[in-house]
Amino acid sequence: MKNKYSVFSLIKNAFSYHENWQRAWKDPAPKKEYDAVIVGGGGHGLATAYYLAKKHNMNNIAVVEKGWIGGGNTGRNTTIIRSNYLWDASAGLYDHALKIWEGLSQELNYNVMFSQRGVMNLAHNLQDVRDLKRRTHANRLNGIDAVYLSTEEVKKFCPIINTSPDIRYPVLGGTLQRRAGTARHDAVAWGYARGADAMGVDIIQNCEVKGIKRNGDIVEGIETTKGFIKTKKIGVVAAGHSSVIANMAGLRLPLESKPLQALVSEPVKPIIDTVVMSNAVHAYVSQSDKGELVIGAGTDDYVSYTQKGSHQIVEGTLNAILELYPIFSRMRMLRQWGGIVDICPDASPILSKTSIKGLYFNCGWGTGGFKATPGSGDLFAHTIANDEPHKLNAAFNLNRFVSGDLVDEHGAAAVAH
Amino acid sequence: MFLINCPYCGERDQQEFKAGGEAHIERPKQPTELSDDEWAEYLFMRKNIKGVQFERWNHAHGCRKWFNMVRDTSNDEIKAIYKMGEKPPSQ
User: Quick check: ipTM above 0.90?
Assistant: First the structure.
């Protein structure tokens, strides 16, 4: 890498008042033709480009992004990373990502602030207890670290939780994945962009896809706001807007795009050093390095592309947060926002070829795509380069909605989708 | 959040309603003769339009009746509301 970041480069640049840092990635105009074009410059898209260049020697490729990189759901999520999924296919997929996360800062020479502070999932009723125990066992059979905690152990691990038996949904236990945690979402996009750019990938921002040109069942290129780009392979990683791109190609996807909200509080001193999620009352919270509480709310039930959600969704989440953490009752919320998430009927993603040759989709991550960013990019790059899925994403094909072989993580995952 | 004009109760807060997804998806007349592809199309594939979409809503915390809505999903603007069984307005 041309400008390797290190303590020495930091000291060197300190002498020139940090005025001579090079830009981390170029701002090229699109070429006439690429070997592959990735549509969508979020974490998953940039990671796909990075691994295409790094592992598959495809350097004549581009990422086109209609806004700015990392400005969509990559910059809007609550940064939780875990792999404690129930089914074998999901466990394989998400733990593949978690293993890459563990060395990602070193690999990218960019601090993604990956923090393995643990993720705890709470049980509030008998069925939760049974489900979480079952999931713990399933995780361990798949080689994923998981332990079941009693109410006392939950309290010990996170003392600010109200474990009184008198609350509406008392804490009956929980699970803990210690390898899980959080990362800095923007840094993930920027790190992958810088890494991909260094290997020759063109990252083209403010470039919206307007159409997909195909000759019969073979793609020929994309129409964009910066002109036509010829290519034989198009990898669509457009999250909430996947259906919009699919409609351009005359494809239908099993997706619905819905607003998902999150909010952060004013910054306070360290109070919660882990991530706590509750499926039953739908509240999850962690604390950012700046000190803000990062709180995830739920999705609305209607299709919308507005990046806004309903007030009662946030209210419901905050009610749950306050019952579980009475200490937060006088905290003020600083910001609230929405992102558009593309949800599959089985709440599992699609990383797949399509009926059109050269057109690939990476979508349907729904409410939980951030955690999978490195693994998703790696496996999607494999799928595009070889025109065949990797064994870890073979189950996440589009054809599962025809065969009925769904990866039904609905409610089986650690948080409601 | 927006207001919805229920055809039976009048204007109410959206919180009282439940969205029921894409409208006018007809149940196959001969289910036994359907191929797997056609089942997938009927059960799972959705238009998921960014723009004007036809959808079903239920006044869950009101009269509990179903009705149809034409809504622009890019700005949540409601274009038309009509009862079940009525012909959709032409857009």
Answer: yes
Phi, psi of A9 (to 5 degrees): -65, -30
Contact B79, B45 (CB under 8 A): no
Q: Does B73 touch chain A (CB under 8 A)?
A: yes
Contact at CB, B49 and A247, closer than 8 angstroms: yes
In Å, what is the CA distance from A241 to each residue of A73, A244, A305, A393?
11, 5, 8, 21
Mutate to test the interface with B, among A299, A303, A408 (most CBs of B within 10 A): A303
A230-285 pLDDT, tens digit each: 999 999 999 999 999 999 999 999 999 999 999 999 999 999 999 999 988 888 99
Residues in B closer than 8 angstroms to A304, CB to CB, are 73, 76
pTM over 0.80: yes
**Per-residue pLDDT at A416 exceeds 70:** no
Domain positions in chain B are: 3-83
CATH: 3.90.230.10, 3.20.20.300, 3.30.2270.10, 3.40.630.40. Which one for B3-83? 3.30.2270.10
Distances (CA, A) of B85 to A278, B22, B66, B82: 41, 15, 10, 9
Token couple for A141: 């059979």
- On the question of pLDDT at A326 being above 70, the answer is yes
Kindly state the tokens that stand for B62: 């009101």
Contact (CB<8Å) A252/B41: yes
Token digits for A309? 């959600």
A416 Cβ neighbours under 8 A, 6+ residues apart = A279, A282, A298
Residue B44: CB atoms within 10 Å: 18
